[in-house]
Amino acid sequence: MENKGIDCLICYGEYENKHGGISCSQDHFCCQDCFGNMAQDMFEHSQTKIPAKCFECQEELNKDQVLKLMDSTKVGLYKLYCARTEIDPKSQKVQKCPYCTYYEIWDINNNSHIFYCQEDSCRKVCCFICNRKLKVASSSKDKESIEVQEEVLSHSKCAAFLTMQADWETAMSPGQQRKCPGCGLGGTKDEDCTKMTCVRCSTLWCYICGMSEAQVERESVDSNFGQHFLGWETNSKRCPKKLTYIAKVDKRWDSEDEEANTEYFHKILQYKAMREFFSEYTEEQFQNLCEIVPEAKDYLDKIEEVMTMDLELIKR
Ligand SMILES: [Zn+2]
Ligand SMILES: [Zn+2]
Ligand SMILES: [Zn+2]
Ligand SMILES: [Zn+2]
Ligand SMILES: [Zn+2]
Ligand SMILES: [Zn+2]
Question: Which residue intervals define the domain RING-type in the entry (predicted)?
Answer without folding.
Answer: 4-231
